[in-house]
Amino acid sequence: MGASGLTVRPARADDYDDVVAFTSDTWADREGSDYIPRVYHDWIEGPDGGERRRTLVAEDDEAAVGIAQAVLLSDHEAWCQGMRVAPSHHGEGVATRITRGLFDWARDRGAAVARNMVFSWNVAGLGQSRATGFAPATEFRWARPRPDPDAAPGAAVVEDPDDAWTYWARSDARDHLRGLALSFDETWAMRELTREGLRRAADETAVFAVQDAGTRGMAYRVRDDERENEDGEVEHRAEYGVGAWEDLAACRDLLAAVRRDAGELGADDVRVLVPETVRHVSDVAATRTPVSDEPDFVLAADLTDDRRR
């Protein structure tokens, strides 16, 4: 029927088979599978289904042919994710229709900005994001330190959220990342890091401030949990919302604190979000810590722009 016959509406449980059909080979040319079939029912049946998140599908001829979700991460920030369109409907404006619906939903709930994340290799996804109203915001990479309960930082590392905030507030990492770090409440999502967020980490997870003639680095843990990896194996992952540091020595000490924390948790896999800059990535590499092969890009849309209404 084409775009003129599309209906955009909230996703339903009985859309599952249609969604699986057009997401099963999302990245057929790369290793790994699409996560949407695994999380679909949680997306639409979660306890906060209509209050904090909205999943929309585009329907054509009684079949779902596109999907995406928006989640409220704070009182003014929305996160958009999972945009997929059936190959049979590429180029018909499906993504634009769904995204506008999500923008309207988020704006009506007070959001002033919506962001998303796209793998840097996903050129089609980047083009689609720009076409639907997102603009470049920042980029990051994952440091992958190996857990070790016996790792010993050379400098003092204290669990003080205010010290960590003081360093974060003046760091070049914060400038590069536009103040963003991983969300506690939504995986693969970034929101503004606040002093209150670091205090939450101190209460619920862990926060680190490297001290050597002043605070010279910070990080915090957002979660550690067991999850199924792409090979179907269950692994214990510890995930850290951001790492920021002054120099190579501070980087080494900060990563040692993370390695020790993850080792004490018994984690199998660790990842720390770090800015995608030559200095930060090369500092991590100089500590002989593995780094992800490619960066991830974050884009943002200004929902206060009347032209998006």
* Number of strand segments: 14
Strand order of the largest sheet: 1-2-3-4-5-14-6-13-12-11-10-7
Broad CATH class of the largest domain: Alpha Beta
Sequence of secondary-structure elements:
EHHEEEHEHEEHHEEHEEEHEHE
Shape, principal axes of CA atoms: elongated
Short structural summary:
This protein has helices spanning 16-23, 36-45, 94-108, 123-131, 161-170, 172-176, 195-204, 248-265, 278-286, and strands spanning 7-10, 53-60, 63-72, 77-85, 113-119, 135-143, 156-158, 180-182, 190-192, 206-211, 215-228, 234-245, 269-275, 296-302. By secondary structure, it is an alpha+beta fold. The chain has two domains: 3-138 and 298-308, Aminopeptidase (3-Layer(aba) Sandwich), CATH 3.40.630.30; 145-291, Gcn5-related N-acetyltransferase (GNAT) (Aminopeptidase, 3-Layer(aba) Sandwich).
What this model shows, in words?
This protein has helices at residues 16-23, 36-45, 94-108, 123-131, 161-170, 172-176, 195-204, 248-265, 278-286; strands at 7-10, 53-60, 63-72, 77-85, 113-119, 135-143, 156-158, 180-182, 190-192, 206-211, 215-228, 234-245, 269-275, 296-302. It is an alpha+beta fold and 309 residues long. It has 2 domains: 3-138 and 298-308, Gcn5-related N-acetyltransferase (GNAT) (Aminopeptidase, 3-Layer(aba) Sandwich); 145-291, Aminopeptidase. The strands form 2 sheets. A 12-stranded mixed sheet has the order 1-2-3-4-5-14-6-13-12-11-10-7, sandwiched between helices. Strands 8-9 form a two-stranded antiparallel sheet. A hairpin with a 2-residue loop joins strand 2 (53-60) and strand 3. Helix 1 packs antiparallel against helix 2 (36-45) and helix 5 (161-170) runs antiparallel to helix 7 (195-204). The model has no long low-confidence stretch (mean pLDDT 92).
